[in-house]
Design brief:
Elements: E1 6-11, E2 22-23, H1 32-41, E3 48-53, H2 60-75, E4 79-84, H3 92-103, E5 108-113, H4 120-128, E6 131-137, H5 143-153, E7 158-165
Parallel strand pairs: 1-7, 3-5, 3-6, 4-5, 6-7
Antiparallel strand pairs: 2-4
Length: about 170
Amino acid sequence: MSSAVLEAEIDRERLEAPSTARFAPVEAALPIEWQKLWLATQLRPWRSLAVVRVGEGVPTVRIARTLAGAGACHLGLVVELVDATSITLGQVRVSTEVWIERRGGAERILLALGPVLTSPASLALAQVADAAILCVTLGESSIAEAQRTIEEIGHARVLGSVCLRRGEEDR
């Protein structure tokens, strides 16, 4: 990846639980690694960010929710989350239209996606987003899958990766 690689190792247990889909500016006590991860995503301009799962069991919706909370706090603006983890190819056009329409009310939109290697719909949305981050679980997600995901999305679009650790023993 480029010199502006975005990497963070984050304990899966410290992710915020899912809540609402729109995040207004609220001062929250987010762990510092999530705040830094959000700031690292700001190194390049974007309005839509795809949060892409590599492998099974990676909680992209929860990751996107946590980032949306950090973003709303940092920017003082509404950050919207779109859960597109179960979208089908037939729903992409309508979902994209809704997403573009809703973008008018939000400064930034985060798209939580499934794995692009097995979901053409996730691939289509990742390729439409301004930027993307990969979400992998150490010891579970395959490096080969991550490399193929980057190739499919496009190297220039990928900001970096979020590396999740399974449990407390990995700290």
